[in-house]
Amino acid sequence: MQTQEILRMLRLPELGDLGQFFRSLSATTLGSAGARRSVIGGSPQLLTHYYDDARTMYQVFRRGLSISGSGPCLGFRKPKQPYQWLSYQEVADRAEFLGSGLLQHNCKASSDQFIGVFAQNRPEWIIAELACYTYSMVVVPLYDTLGPGAIRYIINTADISTVIVDKPPKAVLLLEHVEKKEIPGLKLIIIMEPFEEALRERGQECGVLLKSMQAVEDCGQANYHAPVPPKPDDLSIVCFTSGTTGNPKGAMLTHGNVVADFSGFLKVTEGDIRLLSDDMKALCPTIFPVVPRLLNRMYDKIFSQANTPLKRWVLEFVAKRKQAEVRSGIIRNDSIWDELFFNKIQASLGGCVRMIVTGAAPASPTVLGFLRAALGCQVYEGYGQTECTAGCTFTTPGDWTSGHVGAPLPCNHIKLVDVEELNYWAKNGEGEICVRGPNVFKGYLKDTEKTKEALDRDGWLHTGDIGRWLPAGTLKIIDRKKHIFKLAQGEYVAPEKIENIYIRSEPVAQMYVHGDSLKAFLVGIVVPDPEIMPAWAQKKGFEGTYEELCANKDMKKAILDDLVRLGNAGGLHSFEQVKAIHIHSDMFSVQNGLLTPTLKAKRPQLREYFKTQIEELYSISI
């Protein structure tokens, strides 16, 4: 479907009027507060739901059951085997049986009942989640990457007495905590996979009942209890965010929060999303959620294969031809350029991708522009955080410009407030991003102090991110209020902004910028990309293995020069440029404690981990 047809379906302006349309896209303000909202939908009220009969997650599933005619719901397969499917009705039955079984094991049909789910993605995860929603219970996800200390903290904070796990080793981990009297409230562990009798006996010895998920479902089927559906204001899930410091914070999200947020996404993309059904039947990926770093790697890999001046010139020429189409509103994958040059790139993603959705970190405008052309699909960029149920802004269909995160979703307002210490002023269209609407969370579980820091008395969520309104009515993320520090000469520095510029260096995979209030300049830790760096080094005249290149002082200088070049191009001040770097050959990861589960840098841990190297960099550079 061409863009003009989509615009007509959405009752949006024709392409000739798009400039004026996007300039007014989020220009609607609310009084003197200067808050902006989406104009999509035409209603003066914020969007709380998409369908009248789907205002809770339980109702969303029941609507799917009704519409599907008990069609396929959850698919799974073993390697090199065809998919097996559970129908909507099978999933509904199993959820009701599991929920009824939980009621037979001292759980309450209440939003005060928290159920831990400690498992990787699989059909049983969704069934467990739906079982909770069917009987107004609350899901509390637990993750391996949180670490044992955080899991212990979450179980105790949320008063979790029942945890559903996927494999026996996770039950063993929980029992070890119980045996040490670290989680005394845990009474029931339900295991999705078979386990040995010895494990059940070990649980009995410390007062914990272990049962298979199938046994609990059988119990529920024999003692069936009618569903106790939740209300929109009831809690649905508590997502504990690991954060970079301190204990995890439990963001409390209601059914209304979750429904409002995904309804906002549906409203923005309606008309387009319905075109995906034929492709879904063939089980090819059609929607591709991805973090910007993977997009960067795709971009770098494509250009690294254009390894001669002629190949690179041809690739850039062809990309410009298709980017011109994108700018005029045409997004397709059947042009002569696709047949000759881009079809292999598209086939590498399955050949059926219609939509790429990216977020979680800034995405390069250069990368987004190229991939929109090369992949011949729509690339949406969003922005948000757990506390606003994932998203609060999103690219508007038809606006394929880059360098921003779109306009407000129809389910929330956004305003910018002054940040005096960083010299950002709302009157200039800059400031801390604040969000208010039905997708904003209720607060942090049992943490009044942190809740007051995040939510003001008028219900505005203070995100800690700095934004700027662009002339077209879209929002650009330009800085971060948190993680700022002052250098010895009094200049404020936001290291994440600098890292996001430096990470575009071709040989660099990860970057940590460090500063100290007693020092006048910045230093950095660089992790080169083991796939890209050797070829880049060879072009610069360096030879050797990855480890040898990481230890090469001349190579380090070449990377530093490239960082400074990018910093100058990105408008960094002299005091924002790193003056020395250390090359580290191992990636920062969740496993080594240097990244959060959402792949954000744990700055205090990085500072401590590289303490010796940082001290050396300062001593050498003085």
The fraction of residues in strands falls at 15-25%
Distance between the terminal alpha carbons, to the nearest Å?
A: 61 Å
Number of domains: 3
Report the uncertain regions: 1-27, 272-282
Folded structure, characterized:
α7 links the parallel β7 (162-165) and β8. The radius of gyration is 26 Å and the shape is globular. It folds into three domains: 3-26 and 34-42 and 276-432 and 468-480, no CATH class; 57-230, Rossmann fold (3-Layer(aba) Sandwich); 485-621, ANL, C-terminal domain (GMP Synthetase, Chain A, domain 3, 2-Layer Sandwich). The strands form seven sheets. It has a six-stranded antiparallel sheet, with no helix packed on it. Strands 6-5-7-8-9 form a five-stranded parallel sheet, with helices on both faces. A five-stranded mixed sheet has the order 12-13-14-15-16. The longest helix has 19 residues, at 309-327. The N and C termini lie far apart (61 Å). By secondary structure, the chain is α/β, with parallel strands linked by helices.
Give the structure's gist in a few sentences.
The chain has 622 residues and is an alpha/beta fold.
List the helices and strands and how they pair.
Blueprint: H1 3-9, H2 18-23, E1 29-30, E2 35-37, H3 57-68, E3 72-76, E4 84-87, H4 88-103, E5 114-118, H5 123-134, E6 138-142, H6 148-157, E7 162-165, H7 168-179, E8 188-191, H8 197-205, E9 209-212, H9 213-222, E10 235-241, E11 249-254, H10 255-269, H11 277-281, E12 287-290, H12 292-305, H13 309-327, H14 336-347, E13 355-358, H15 365-375, E14 378-383, E15 393-394, E16 407-408, E17 413-417, E18 430-436, E19 443-444, H16 448-454, E20 461-469, E21 475-480, E22 485-486, E23 492-493, H17 495-502, E24 508-514, E25 522-528, H18 533-539, H19 546-550, H20 553-569, E26 578-583, H21 603-609, H22 611-621
Parallel strand pairs: 5-6, 5-7, 7-8, 8-9, 12-13, 13-14, 25-26
Antiparallel strand pairs: 1-2, 2-17, 3-4, 10-11, 11-19, 14-15, 15-16, 17-18, 18-20, 20-21, 22-23, 24-25
Helix pairs in contact: 4-5, 4-9, 13-15
